[in-house]
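step=encode ok
step=design start
structure_in=
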């Protein structure tokens, strides 16, 4: 089967979060299953820096807008592990500092950037290979499904192609003025309440939900959650209407990148049956944070995260005093909303020698933190899937998480009687619940045998892409059958 991915991020070319990890790994697993998979990503400045040569496969595709045309090129990114990569080039839209915007906000022409991207992919496949199914991701490539069933509805080579939309995060949506419909050359009859219109704005993600054949999200629990007002970010109604076509498939992770047995960024390798290397990694991590004097009995907690309201750090701020009264060290790596950067910097200044925060994006350090810490903290308010808790388990770093979305699906609570479980979960989203859960973790940490059991339980979990890729494969078959 031929599958085309259109996505705004993909490891190793461009990444702001877990979407990039998924788009980096799932296609390769599908290729291993024998499918022909092609991935299209915008040719951002970040991508240009990673691709040695700008070799055009298509020099110019005309993308019409209301009063003008833009011209996109298709750059050949070559093949890696059986997957073909193409990049949509349009320097005036993609050759920028960041992927989506700066600290002062989203780029105002994102409607045009990702509208062009979606349409360029449709045009490109007509020359480079029409797939059986398009797999689009989040609001950024949602318009591909919309164009395919509207403007391109009568295209003889495209009209039978199926579409799958994966929602990685319903909290990220875009709202544009009604006139954007015309600017994108979409027929006005798409701007209705049951299609693209959303409270008098044009909403890309809503368009994806309405026009894609099947919608998936990245965990089973989140698939249910987004159909409620609490988690649907106002799209719960439309998602409920599409409930029969909405599925939850828990993400896998790429153990080639994230496994302490061969991770290239960490100080020593280790595995469940041979844990010695982890001590060295812990030392190395503490050293990287300028904390060489920490005793073995002191648990090291880590956080690696985008700094965003989603991630639940308000709970941490509200419970900092109680938490940090305990013997522990907290190491934080993150970047994002300035509010949270200030919040963490302020906590660190109140607890010198106990809390250290590094503001920034650092992949190598993220690996060291997974490997070297004892406990990984993810108090997310909501979490569609979450990858860091899954990475943590593989590194014997015990996750403490809020029982929401994918965190609930992937972490099993420690049971002291049966000695089963892989971490600690708190149900209510309150500072007290977080403190209680963490205090339980700290208690178990003192019992070396129990803790090792807990670590090994996590390290033995299999979250590779093998199973989820088969689930996607079944879904692509279903979608292709429906369209044939
Ligand atoms: P989200 O996609 O919501 O940010 P995930 O847990 O799915 O959350 O994925 C986050 C990914 O981004 C992980 O691979 C994580 O290691 C990485 N990451 C997040 N923040 C940073 C950072 N400051 N430095 C390096 N890697 C980071
Ligand atoms: C989003 C979600 C995260 C998920 C990732 C990959 O960024 O916030 O929970 O793991 O996408 O699907």
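sequence_out=
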């Amino acid at each position: 089967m031929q599958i085309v991915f259109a996505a705004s991020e993909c490891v190793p070319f461009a990444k702001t979060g877990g979407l990039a990890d998924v788009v980096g790994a799932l296609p390769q697993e599908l290729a291993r299953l024998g499918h022909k998979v092609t991935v299209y990503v915008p040719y951002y400045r970040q991508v240009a820096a990673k691709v040695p040569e700008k070799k055009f496969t298509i020099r110019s595709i005309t993308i019409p807008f209301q009063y003008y045309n833009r011209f996109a090129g298709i750059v050949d990114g070559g093949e890696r592990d059986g997957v073909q990569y193409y990049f949509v080039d349009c320097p005036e839209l993609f050759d920028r500092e960041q992927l989506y915007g700066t600290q002062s906000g989203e780029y105002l022409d994102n409607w045009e950037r990702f509208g062009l991207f979606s349409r360029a992919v449709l045009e490109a496949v007509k020359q480079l290979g029409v797939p059986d199914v398009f797999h689009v991701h989040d609001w950024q490539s949602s318009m591909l499904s919309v164009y395919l069933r509207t403007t391109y509805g009568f295209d003889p080579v495209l009209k039978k192609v199926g579409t799958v939309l994966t929602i990685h995060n319903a909290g990220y949506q875009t709202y544009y003025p009604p006139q954007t419909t015309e600017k994108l050359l979409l027929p006005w009859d798409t701007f209705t309440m049951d299609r693209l219109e959303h409270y008098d704005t044009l909403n890309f993600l809503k368009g994806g939900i309405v026009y894609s054949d099947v919608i998936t999200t990245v965990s089973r629990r989140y698939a249910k959650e987004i159909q409620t007002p609490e988690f649907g970010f106002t799209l719960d109604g439309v998602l409920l209407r599409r409930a029969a076509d909405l599925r939850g498939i828990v993400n896998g992770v790429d153990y080639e990148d994230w496994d302490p047995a061969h991770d290239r960024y960490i100080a020593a390798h280790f595995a469940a049956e041979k844990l010695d290397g982890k001590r060295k990694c812990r030392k190395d991590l503490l050293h990287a944070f300028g904390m060489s004097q920490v005793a073995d009995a002191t648990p090291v907690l880590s956080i690696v995260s985008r700094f965003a309201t989603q991630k639940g750090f308000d709970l941490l701020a509200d419970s900092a005093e109680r938490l940090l009264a305990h013997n522990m060290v907290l190491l934080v790596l993150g970047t994002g909303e300035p509010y949270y950067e200030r919040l963490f910097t302020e906590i660190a200044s109140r607890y010198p020698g106990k809390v250290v925060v590094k503001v920034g994006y650092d992949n190598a350090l993220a690996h060291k933190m997974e490997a070297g810490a004892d406990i990984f903290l993810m108090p997310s308010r909501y979490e569609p899937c979450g990858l860091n808790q899954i990475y943590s388990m593989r590194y014997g770093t015990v996750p403490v998480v809020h029982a929401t979305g994918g965190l609930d699906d992937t972490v099993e609570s420690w049971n002291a009687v049966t000695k089963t479980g892989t971490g600690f979960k708190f149900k209510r989203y309150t500072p007290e619940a977080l403190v209680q859960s963490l205090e339980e973790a700290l208690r178990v940490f003192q019992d070396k045998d129990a803790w090792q059991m807990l670590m090994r339980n996590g390290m033995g979990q299999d979250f590779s892409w093998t199973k989820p890729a088969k689930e996607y494969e079944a879904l692509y078959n279903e979608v292709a059958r429906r369209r044939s």
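step=design ok
step=annotate ok -> The chain is about 40% helix and 20% strand.
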